[in-house]
Design brief:
single chain, alpha/beta, Rossmann fold, five-stranded parallel β-sheet, two-stranded antiparallel ribbon, 7 strands
Amino acid sequence: MGKLIVIEGLDGSGKTTQTAIVAEELRRQGKDVKVISFPDYKSPSASLVNMYLQGDFGERPSEVNAYAASSFYAVDRYASYNKEWKEFYERTDSIVLATRYTTSNEIYQLAKIKRDDWDDFIDWAEDFEYGKLGLPQPDAVFYLDMKYEIAKKLIDSRSAETGQAKDIHELDDIYMQQCHKAAAYALGRLGWKNIVCYSDKAPLTPEEITETILTELVTLLDMS
């Protein structure tokens, strides 16, 4: 099998930017890299995800229970794996670089669960996707740790510049703050690598963040 590396983080943390930069650097070093991203909004498999995020099942995230919403995202990953990257992943020395993965359910959906039940939900999510659905487990998860106040400004700026409407997650400040707490718990519980992406009240540059990620990857990928 190859390696599955996940770049995870809350909205506004720079996941897509970092995935692209890291992939470019790995290819420059001669690595065989495939980039994937979840949800796969253009695929029919993400139809329920799109409906959920645009509020078809309820205007607030809490109106769709964590297990139902998790299943929407899991099915999208199942379809993507079997149709798009399973064969590539099964090749020796391949690297699959994912923006979001099962790990997103262990943040966004975990935030809907009572604190006393967080461990049970994480165990369920891991068993459902890696056990029942047969998706591969990541070899490493890099969590882009961006302070909530900074991330919110970046989300607002992106929305204003692109005209892209915010989804039901981004519109709910209380929920997003709870997601940050859930992420901090999942980070420790599951052994993700924490990549601090800010200094005081300002984000680090993309280059500074990439340098930290690549330093962590050296050992994992046996890069010289």
